[in-house]
Each structure stands twice: as structure tokens, then as C-alpha cells.
């Protein structure tokens, strides 16, 4: 088993969102990667520039950030051959490591565009090094930039940030500072290739919460009307519990919250986030954790505040 720490740079439509290809909003133009063995020792590195085929001119923001010019990319490889070489270089059963959640999703989206997604079957388990850094050195909910983490850990200079090879080196450097037990207990799941049927649904138990990823539904409303999705389960004994706060939209437009009471283990909070899949259907990610009575009261107060706001808007 090897860890593949990789970073992507991508371009977008220079003529604005209305002119973009909906199947490929971000086109990969550079891949940089570092291969580490199970002990996280350096094994090898990988780098390739990719000649764009969809957005042949660079967006001005892309040029500003990555430091590459169009003449550099004209010397690059086509995406199918570059991706094929990269996946072969990764070897069998790689554990991908990225800074944040975007790179692995966009790699799969680009593979899908070129009908190569079967080369990387999912859903994919991976290490989100940005999240792991937060767990180790900040608080779980904080997300820092790669440059912040590199400076915080006093990593050696690997080059200019927002260059794929340099960012892969920095991310590998941060990953080496994460204790093994934290990395193994706090892996992430990428859902670009989300479950399609009940039998493929995912349930993962972490130290402090449980994550459930549902199969697909036709509409958002179908998701939230499914009893399997909206069940509230005790994190400790896994039994369905009686709800003491019914599901309500949290005001962000993304999440639905509820709470229940387990007679044996106490209060539990359930959060359901409905997401749109790549095929236009919808699925849910539900997280469940135990909460205190004080946290329950805060949840009830939030529900009441949102209800009052909604009523005031109707008047």
C-alpha cells in the first residue's frame, strides 16, 4: 500500500459560466504528486502538464494564481494519456491524500468526461490532510490554507504555492506530521461516485460521530421523505430513538437538523445534508452524534428563531 499525495491545477471557461461545458466546469491542466510508503517515507514523485482541449485559453484568475502561460500548456500531454500514466504510476490500491475535498472530485469529473471513470471505481476513501491538520493543531471545524499549515509546521521551502508539484510536496510534509492513529481514524469519503442502491449505502463510525451516505433519489423532497434517511439513531447503541426535535431546515439552505432521546444513552443530534449527484439525482449525507441537554436547548432555540423569522416574512 502506498499513499499518493497529489495536487491539481485546473482552468475554467474564460468566457464566463454561461459559456462553460456543464460536464466539465474545471479542466485539469497540471498534476503533481508524491508517493509515500506505509511508513510515509518518500518513494517517488510525478508531474505532468496537460494540454487543454475544452478551454484552450486560460481564465485570467487561473493565470494570476498558477503562474503558467498558455505556451507552457501547448507543450503538455492530452488528458487521457496523462491520466493513464498517473493512475499506472499510483499502483494498486493507493490511498489518496489531498489538501481539502476538491481535487479528488475534479479528478473523477475529468475522468468521467473522457469515459475513463472505470479506471478509478468509487466511492473513494481518502485522507483529507486539511481536515487532519485541523484535528491535530486547530479545532475540527477550522480549515486553514496550505501555506498557513506549511508555515505553522516550519516545513522546508518546496517552491511557489499553487504549483502542483510544490503543493503536493507541502501537503506530503503536513501529512507526515499527522499521528498515524489520527489519520486512520479520521479518513474521508468522496461521493462523486455515490451509492446507487440500498445495498451500496455507506455507514461509517468514527470516534465521536457516525456518517451515513444514502442511495440516490429523484428529487430533494424524495430524500427528506424517506424514513431510512431521516431515522434518528443513537450513536452508542445504534437503535432508532424517539425524536424530541423534528427535522427542520437550519437556514443555510443545505442542512436539516433533528434530535432524539435514547432512554439509555441520552440525547442525539442528526444532521442531514442533501446533495446533487453528478447524474442530476439526489442523495443524503447524515451525521449523528451525542449531545448534552444544553446543546439540545440551543438546537430548540435555533428552531424557534427560524420559525419566527419565517412567519415574519409571510406577514
Question: If you had to describe this structure to a student in words, what would you say it looks like?
Answer:
- The protein has helices spanning 60-66, 70-73, 79-90, 102-113, 129-137, 146-152, 164-176, 180-185, 220-224, 227-230, 293-314; strands at 3-12, 26-36, 42-49, 95-98, 124-128, 188-190, 202-205, 210-213, 242-249, 255-262, 266-276, 282-291.
- With 315 residues, the protein is α+β, with helices and mostly antiparallel strands.
- The chain folds into two domains: 3-188, Ribonuclease H-like superfamily/Ribonuclease H (Nucleotidyltransferase, domain 5, 2-Layer Sandwich), CATH 3.30.420.10; 195-314, no CATH class.
- It contains eleven helices and twelve strands.
- The mean pLDDT is 94.
- A hairpin with a 5-residue loop joins β11 (266-276) and β12 (282-291).
- The longest helix is centred in the C-terminal third of the chain and has 22 residues, at 293-314.
- The protein starts with a strand and ends with a helix.
- α6 (146-152) packs across α7.
- Strands 3-2-1-4-5-6 form a six-stranded mixed beta sheet. A six-stranded antiparallel beta sheet has the order 7-8-12-11-10-9.
What percentage of amino acids are in beta strands? 25-35%
Rounded to the nearest angstrom, the radius of gyration is 22 Å
CATH-defined architecture of the largest domain:
2-Layer Sandwich
Mean model confidence by pLDDT: 94
**Per CATH, what is the topology of the largest domain?**
Nucleotidyltransferase, domain 5
- What structural category do the secondary elements indicate? alpha+beta
Largest β-sheet summary:
6 strands, mixed
Total helices: the number is 11
The best one-word shape is globular
